[in-house]
Each structure stands twice: as C-alpha cells, then as structure tokens.
Amino acid sequence: MVTIRDRKEKRMGQLRAEIERHARLYYREGRSEISDFEYDMLLRELEAVELDLGIQDSASPSKKVGDDRIEAFQNYPHSEPMLSLDNAYNQGEIQAFHERLVRLFNTEKLNYIIEPKIDGVAVSLTYEQGHFVRGLTRGNGREGDDVTHNLRTIEGLPLVLKTQPIPEIIEIRGEVYINESDFKTINQTALTSGEKAYKNPRNLASGSIKLLDATETRKRKLRIVLYGIGFCNPANFFTWQEDIHYQIRDWGLPAQAVVLKAETCDELWMRIREMDALRKSLPFATDGAVIKLNTIALQREAGNTAKSPRTMVAYKFASEQAQTVLRDITLQVGRTGVITPVAELEPVDIARTTVSRATLHNNDEIRRKDIRIGDTVIVEKAGEIIPAVIEVVIEKRPPHTQPFDILTRINGKCPACGQPVIQAEGEVAIRCLNLNCPPQLSRKLEFIAGRKALDIENLGTQVAESLTERSLVKDTLDIFAISLDTLATLNLGTDDDPRTFGEKNATKLIKAVERARTLPLSRWIYGLGIPNVGETTAKELSRLHRSFAELKSSTILRNICQKNDCEVAIKASTDKAEKESLKEKKQSIETKLQDYGISPEVGKVTSATVVEFFDSVIGIQLLTRLSELGINPQSDNYNPLPSTDKDVSNTLPLFGKTFVITGTLPNFSRDDAKTLIEKAGGKVSGSVSKQTHYLLAGDAAGSKLTKAVELGITIIDEDELNSLIGEES
Ligand code: IVH
Hints:
- Helix content is about 40%, strand content about 15%.
- The N and C termini lie far apart (about 65 Å).
- The model has no long low-confidence stretch (mean pLDDT about 90).
- The strands form six sheets. It has a five-stranded mixed sheet with strand order 2-11-10-3-9, with helices on both faces. The protein has a five-stranded antiparallel sheet with strand order 14-13-12-15-16, with no helix packed on it. It has a four-stranded antiparallel sheet with strand order 5-4-7-8.
- It is of the alpha+beta class.
- It folds into six domains: about 5-65, Helix hairpin bin (Helix Hairpins), CATH 1.10.287.610; about 75-315, D-amino Acid Aminotransferase, Chain A, domain 1; about 320-430, CATH 2.40.50.140; about 440-515, 5' to 3' exonuclease, C-terminal subdomain (DNA polymerase, domain 1, Orthogonal Bundle); about 520-645, no CATH class; about 660-725, 3-Layer(aba) Sandwich (Rossmann fold), CATH 3.40.50.
- The radius of gyration is 31 Å and the shape is globular.
- The chain contains 26 helices and 22 strands.
- The longest helix has 26 residues, at about 5-30.
- The site of 2-(butylsulfanyl)adenosine has 15 residues, from strand 3, strand 8 and strand 11.
C-alpha cells in the first residue's frame, strides 16, 4: 500500500532532482529554463515537504548553495563561506522578515540599508596587505574556482588598495557583470562571425568569467561592483554595513552607487519601491533590492541558516516580461489619423496585472521584429508604460505564418472609413487623411472635452463615439450647437439593444459645454490638439498672447521661426559678407525676443507648427466657427515681459526653477504636483534638458530618470518637494 508519507517522499525526491538540474544549468552552464521565481517556488515546496517529513539533510539543495565549479579550474577554499540570500516576493514577506528580527533582538529600533541586487556572477577577491592576490567564484560556497587571471582584465579594478587603513587580509565580495551596450556589441560580433548570440548579459558574464584564456576574457569587457566582505583580519574592522560601501569606495574599488537607509518597516517598503524606480538608471541589470541590517554586531549575533544570513533578505522585483501568443493584429485610427497596430494577445500576467493588448508601434517596427500572427512573443509592461511587444520567440513560430504588413492588410484604405491612406515620405506613420473619419473625430472630441482641456463632464469615449458615428457631430465645435433633446435621446447602445443617454446626463453635459465657452485661452489651445502643443506649451502660449486673434498673428512666434531660418542660412552660406549680415539679423531678433523669457517648450518646431496651424484652412475655419458661436477665450496668465514687471512671483520659493515630473508619486497625482509647483512660482516642463533644475521622481520612473542622472540633475521625491516649498509633508 502506498502511504501518504511514501507519496511525500517521492515528491521530495522529484523536487531535489529537478532543483539540482536547474541549479546545474544556471551555475555551471550559465543558462536557465525557468524563471528565478519558479525556481524559488520549487525550493520553497521542497523546504515545506522536508519540514513536514521531519527530514534534515545537509546534502539537500534546500540546505546548500548551488555549485559553479568546473573541471578545468584550480579550487581554493573561502576563508569564510560564501552564502546565498533568502528571497522575498511581496510586502508581507518583508514585514515577516522585519518582525522576525524585532522578536530576535526584542527591539523595534532596527537600522537597515537597502542596495541594488546586481544580476551578475558572485566573486570573492582576497587582498593581502592591500594587494590583490586571488579571486574565486562562489563555487559550492566553501571553495571556489580560481579566476584571478580573468578578474585582472577588469578595467577600473585596482590591484592595490589606494588608502589606509587597510586590514592585513580581507575577502571583498561582489558581482561581475557586463553592461547592456557592451553586451550588444559583443553579441553583434558573435553573430557576424557565425556564432550563437548570448541570451542576456548575465549568461555572457558567467561564461566569460570561466574562460581559460584571459586575452579572450578582456574582449568581454567585464565590470565589477563590490558590496560586501567575507573573512577580515582584524575581524572588527567594520562596525556598520554602510561603512563597507564607503570604505570600498575609498580604497578605489568600484562600489555600489545607490545605498538607501530605513528605520521602520514602512520606510523599508518605501525605499524598496524607490529602488525599483532608481534601478533603471543603473549601468547593470538588477533583479531586486538587498536589505541588510546595518549593525554588524547584530548580524553576527543572529548568525546564518544553512544557506543565508538571518539579517539579510533579497526582495525580488516582479519580472516585467512574459511570453504569450499573438492572436491577432488590429488597427486603430488615432486622433491625428495615424493608424496604429495593436497586438491582441492571449491574456498573460505581467508584474501582477493581466495584459491582453500591447502596442506594436508602427509598420516599420513590425517588419523589423518580423512579428507575425500566431507567433509567441515576449511582452513587457514596465510601470505606467503601455505594454509593448519586445521580440518574437522564433523557436516557437508555428508553420505557415505570414509576414504582416499594415498596407497589405488594409488594402491602402482606412480600416474605419474606407478612404485612402498615405505614408508621407520619410515618415513611418500611415495616416487616414479624412478629417471626418469617425474614430478620428471621436478622439478629437474626447480630447477637447478632456479634464485638462475644456473639462466637459459626461463626454467620454462612448458618448463621443455615438455622436460621431451617428454624424450628430461632424466637427468638434458642433458640440457647442447641439440641442438638449438630441443629447437626451442619444442611443449609446446598438439599434437592437438601445440605451439612451437620458435627460439628466444631457443637462449636465450641456451645462459643462456652456461653462467651457469662457474657460481660459490655455485650455482651449491645448484642447485643439495641435501637434507639439502640450499643456505646458499651451500655458506658455497664453502667457505670451491674450486671444486666438493675437496668437494667429503672433510676431513672437514668427520671430522664433525667422531666427531659425537665419541659423539655417548662416550654416548654408559660403559668402562672408552675407554670413555677417545674417548674423546681425539673427542677433537683432534675439534681442527682440530676450525680454519675453520664453521657455524652451516654445522652440522653433512648436512655433512653426502653431503658425502653420492658424494659417491652414482648418485653422482659419476653426477661428471663423468660434466667432460665429460667439466664443472668444481670453488668457488668464498674460504676462509677456516677466522680468520688467514688479511681479510678486519672484519672491515665491520655486521662482525661476524648472521641474520635470516622472513616475507615480505616493500621495499626489502628477497634476496635483504640477499645480503645487506652479503655485510656488516654479515651472513644470515635459522633458528633461540642461535647463531642468529638479526631477521629481516617483515609482516606476523610466527614461526621464536615466536622462536626469546622466545630466547630473537633482532628483527629489515628494517629501523633498514639500520641504523646498516649505510645507510640512
Ligand atoms: S549580499 C550572504 N548584496 O545575490 C550573501 N548579494 O541571491 C550576501 N547579490 O549570493 C550577499 N547583489 O551573489 C549581496 N547588493 C548585493 C548583491 C548580492 C547581488 C548576489 C550575491 C548573492 C546572491 C543571492
């Protein structure tokens, strides 16, 4: 008879074999068939089964770290074992870690540091009397492979420690990695010489550290970050974990660039989220945040489990990529007529949300990545960014798939209105030129009614679609002439299943439309959806002009265009005298423009687009229609010459400071933060440039954060913004 115990023992055996196989692939061959998370779940199941059976076996993979040793290398023992870290996957597990320590030390007062978890290959470097003598891989944790020859190829790794004090002997631990751009170049070279491409920088790093020929290794451009210590004589050289980072830097070794601190469990969680935002700007791949108790005496007191220190834990960030099947490609017509391909996906969970659609950007992207219906694709969803298809898993391509091309699929006609489409020369976008194309018109209507534009409550996607599909609105401004009755009886359902908008909703909408007539000019400018004119630009334009009439005949914008024309002509001219006169002309325009203090948002491209828009047939018709409707919006922030004004704004705390906001803020919406900054006299811009003073970064900040780090711009959080303004947070 098979007992429950037999079944559990069998499962234990299966789990051990499976875990050992995956560990071998990962540590010895530098590749993996399952994600870290799946591997960890197998380990957790094994631990649970062993606990249940009362089995304690030091040979079990639940009790030992992996083994990276290979035949060709000489082994040396680590003076202090190289352990692994326990993983945490959610806030609850972080809290449990903290509470365990609170119980252990019988105090709530704990001090943590939080640092990036580098996704590389662990190594231990021994320095004797300050000289690098040997570098080992982790091996089986007790002894590792001697990779000294390969570590010596790392640029920026000093072979002699630079400053005193220096311990007699010290094992310094860290992670070897290859950065993204070197990885790409190396892979390119591999491909051109007919070799296979490496899957990711970690695989390449782990293969490279195990090369026998160091001249080959040098070509792999290995890098290193050092973050910890093993054996150290004298043993009490360090008191705080954070000192290790400072000392590593002082010795001239590559150290962790980001180390955060926390004292409470809530703070710990906040810092972990912050690290998730910051890690994208780091030069190496990271897969988590490592939390370490800062007090080394307490670390010693708590000691280690079979595999890991009790006072450290690795919080693993949710993977932002997943594989799924591309069921279909649909085509959407946007506000500006651009036809966008959308991936219709087999629903898949990514970073804790279900994703069933992703953007495919445009025809060129589809062609470049050779994305075909039926393919298995890798989809990425990072923070607030719209999910996107990253690449095709070619090995999984089913037979008989066809390359996809938008123009072929739509046969040259707009999928919504059937009118011809064009792809302008040098442009990737395919556009429907029919301004009355219903989805285009519907999105324009929705846009002008949006909260940041004319804020017309009750005019959402459904109402906009019904109005345009039924030709009740043929031009966005028709909404100002629509009757209550038409709206009240508007059918939001289908002919078979009608659902009327109703009198109450219609009345609300009409009221909002009436209110919109007198809203400030900036909201109107923004609502028109002129290319390159966002909210900030619209505000700047309304600071410089009182009305649409002034904007249409703007000399300021024409001067900016002329200045640009001069610059182009100066570059093109070969005649010295002509060059000089052009320079003079440019100078005189600059002088004229100087006093307006125009923000970088209103540059040559925007100015040209705005001038062109109001000179175009559409622009002229729009202004005529507005005057027929008796609508004449006025600027509410008109102040074209700010510096000559005795303006109170220059006494405000953020006067003269430009901010960019990115990511999700813990307490404010981005709009709230913007209003707050503007009230305090600051400006908010949409893109990071040298003119930016501060980047206000929240959770899941992306490329703006990277750019700000590159430009050395001060990065602040919500609390720091509050203290700049002088308010209590
Ligand atoms: S501390 C007792 N700090 O992650 C081990 N490890 O999954 C102490 N790792 O074996 C390690 N970044 O190879 C530490 N900032 C960091 C790290 C880090 C990456 C690696 C390390 C460790 C593995 C555990």
